[in-house]
Every structure is written in C-alpha cells, then in structure tokens.
Amino acid sequence: MDYAAVIVLQVAYGVANLALIGLGLAIIFGMMRVINLAHGEFLMLGGYTVVVATNNGVNLWLAMLVLAPVVVGLIGVIVERVLIRFLYGRMIDTLLATWGLSLFLIGLVTTIFGPTTTTTVSPPVGALHIGAFFSSGYELFLIVITLVLFALVYAVMKFTKLGLLARGTMQRADMAAALGVSTSTIYMITFGLGSAVAGLAGALLAPITGVVPTIGAAYIAKAFITVISGGAAILAGTASAAALLGFINQVVTFITGPTVGEVALLVAAIILLRLLPTGITGRFFRRSL
C-alpha cells in the first residue's frame, strides 16, 4: 500500500511537471497564436533569477514565488513591445523571431554566467515519509502549487474584467477595438502574464533540475507537445493533455526507464494528434476555458 502511494505520487508529479511547463506557453500560443520558441529560455531566466537572488541573500520562497515571475513577466512585456507586436498574424515570422530571441538569451546568459553554471539552490522541503519509503516532499509541493496556479489563472480569466477583455480580444480583436478596448495593451498584458507564469515554472523547477543556459531545450519540446495535444482550451487542454501524457510517461518510465518513457510520451502524442487533429479539447471540453 505504501509503495502504491509512492508510485501514485510520482505519476502525479509527472502530470504536474508537464502542466507547469506548458501553462505559460498555453496562454501565449493558445490565446495569441504566437509560436514562442523562446518559451524554454523564459523558464531558464526564472531559474537564474532564483539562483542570483538567493546568492545575494534573498529568501528562497520570495525569490521563487514573487521575484522570478515579476522579473520574467517584465522581460516578456519588453519583448512584446519591441519585437512581438510587429509580428501579430505573421506566424512564420514570429517563429523565426522568437527562435532568434532564444539564441540571443542563451548567448547572453552564457556570456554573463558561463556555460556550466549550476544551481546551488536546494529543495526547500525535505523528504516525505510514506511508511517504510521516502519520497520528495518538494515534488508534493509542486503538485499542490500547480493546482493552485491553474485555479488562479482560471479565476483571472473567468471572473475578472481583464480576463473578459483578454478573451474577447483574442476572439475578435476588431470588435473589441470597435468597442473602445485598447487591444495593444491587452496583447501586451497577456504576453507578460504568460511570460510570468513561465518564469514562475522555471523558478519552481530550478531546485530539482538545476540551471544551465541551455536548459530551455529540455522544456520547450514537452511544452509544445502538451499544449498542441490539449487543443484550443488553454486550461482544460493543458490539464487534460498533461494528465494523459504525464501518466503514460511516468508509468513507462517506472517499468522500463526514463529514455523509453520519453519515447512513449512522444509516440502517445503522435497517436493522439492522429486521432484528434485539433487536440483533446477539439473533441471534448469544447466550451471549457
């Protein structure tokens, strides 16, 4: 029984990990249709924010939960103002521009911190005793905070004026502009929100994964696979795709090993998109957020 509880916790962590990595991209790509290939580097910047802040005496919780999303969110706003806003509706151009941004951020961080910078941040939550077994208490914390983060984004999008304006602008920007909404401001805030969520995810994962300038490459493929498999609904799609793919990945990893687990995740996503070309929410949960 205790062993089963440890396995369930590991599967839940795998699901939460995918959901956490993909949520920021779901906001930017799912709502704005911007293919942000620099998404992984936004997570990387969140991790570096935590490392730099804690090395300078800032409390770890403050650095992870406040400083990282604020810093990366502001970087996202700057990127949107100086680069992305000129490319809306030009998907290929946006793809190339964010790819260039990704390379620029990797080069910049490598120049400042060196190519092999690693985090000195330890998980702030100790081991969890489950009967005769031990599991990571920090992984349980990540599961909980992922649920809280989804609930917060849902509340903002569903019950606030900002969420209403954002959803309306993404669906019919021309109609929103005709009603006096500053669509440019809404785009900027939405991109900044997606970037902030990515920064928070990178900060939360830093104590587990470590931080190096190229770590974004480990995030970006899983994030896109999760978001595209989920379909148009940013929250229901990301959550359902993360649940399905994370479950398959963790179960196969437990039986065979992490390499085959990653392959199983990719194969499952290919089969899913072959059967459901518009993603899970293209067939199910169509009216979900």
UniProtKB/TrEMBL annotation:
InterPro entries for this protein: ABC_transp_permease, BCAA_transport_permease
Topological relation to the membrane, as annotated: Multi-pass membrane protein
Principal location: membrane
Spans traversing the lipid bilayer: 6-29, 60-79, 91-113, 133-156, 176-194, 200-221, 233-257, 263-285
Pfam families: BPD_transp_2
UniProt-recorded Gene Ontology molecular function terms: transmembrane transporter activity
GO biological process: amino acid transport
Keywords: Amino-acid transport, Cell membrane, Membrane, Transmembrane, Transmembrane helix, Transport
Domain of life: Bacteria
Protein family per UniProt: Belongs to the binding-protein-dependent transport system permease family. LivHM subfamily.
Protein name stated in the entry: Branched-chain amino acid ABC transporter permease
Naturally occurring in which organism (per UniProt): Acuticoccus sediminis
